[in-house]
Amino acid sequence: MDTIVANTIDLLVAAILVALVARRLRLPYTVGLVIAGIGLALTQAGVNVVLTHEFILDVILPPLLFEAAINIRWPDLRRDALPVLTLAIPGTLIAAAVVSTGIVLVLHWPLRSALLFGVLIAATDPVAVIAMFKDNHTEGRLRLLVESESLFNDGVAAVLFTLATGGMQLMGATAPTWMEAGKTLLLTAGGGIAIGLICAGAALLLVGRTTDRMVESTLTTVAAYGSFLLADRLHASGVLSTVAAGLVVGTVAVLRDDERSRMTQRGREFVLALWEFIAFIANSLVFLMIGVTVAGLSFARPGLTACAIIVGLVLLGRALTVYPLCLLFYRSRWKVPAWSQHVLWWGGLRGALGLALALSLPPDMAFRNEILVSTFAVVVFSVIVQGLTMPFLLRRAA
């Protein structure tokens, strides 16, 4: 216990120093965290941390998803629901198919391993994306598109990963298998959303009975973690559950500033500040730990060349998702400007969710090491290279 507390304090001190230096150098905060984590590991600074899928899924991901969701206004999301869902659902499938096919053809991985990797790496991670936009103070429709898509395709990827790891042979399956897969998909996704709505409703019912901002904030915390853990316990999607809970709490209470809000004005201000702080702590810990962990990995398998090929395939998959799907809306009110499409493509950073899914694979699974190392390679490339160059694209898009 003492070691956990000491390591947490060490990481938070490092995060504070990185935040101060990054602001002075105008360096994206998440980029600075990963670089600092690598530096801590290489200098053997005494930080001994182990990044596990339980830590990411149970501790880090729920508050990050919830904080992002409560800041999305439902009228804005409803206005752009069609492009958001198009990018999130068919887009995730396209990206996964491109990456999986490329890995099988070029690197000759087994189909099952390639499919698992393609699914877990297909979704843009809101942990990374939202941190990037906050660093660059990006607002408006572009931020809504990127954040909303990342939240929903996070859930889609998690559900698809559940199907893939459940032994579903999606390629060449018989009719009963497809029916079983559809049933599992419906129960996992629909069940997750339903649980999130129920948890949010229960929290809001209690919020309406108090004017104590501490109680209001505690209830939102219970909704964030409770929706995720309950959905996970019932074999539904914890990601979609927390996103649904956050959208409802944000729409009905936190972002509503009229007399119909279920929350007091002081409570709304306190809740927003609290979740911004929690998200800052969670981001700081996870990106520092990514840096510390990647410094200790051996890239002998699959090899640096293979990692470079995989990064290229991931970028290609994202491009074949964004540009063709946005073209569908070219002559409609949902048209996405060209520079915004470039941001959607290059801003498709990967982060904590992909790592959590990769770390959850059984230790004795074939090609697990290749999947894990490749995931870290893609995450580090996206955070450092794409993160450093994103401010230029954001300025042009603005």
Automatic annotation (TrEMBL):
Residues 13-395 form the Cation/H+ exchanger transmembrane domain. GO terms for molecular function: potassium:proton antiporter activity; sodium:proton antiporter activity. InterPro entries: Cation/H_exchanger_CPA1 (IPR018422), Cation/H_exchanger_TM (IPR006153), NaH_exchanger (IPR004709). The keyword Nuclease does not apply. Pfam families: Na_H_Exchanger. Its main location: membrane. GO terms for cellular component: plasma membrane. It is a multi-pass membrane protein. It is found in: Cell membrane. The keyword Transmembrane helix applies. Keywords: Antiport, Cell membrane, Ion transport, Membrane, Sodium, Sodium transport, Transmembrane, Transmembrane helix, Transport. Belongs to the monovalent cation:proton antiporter 1 (CPA1) transporter (TC 2.A.36) family. PANTHER family: NA(+)_H(+) ANTIPORTER NHAS2, SODIUM/HYDROGEN EXCHANGER. This is Sodium:proton exchanger. It comes from Rhodopila globiformis.
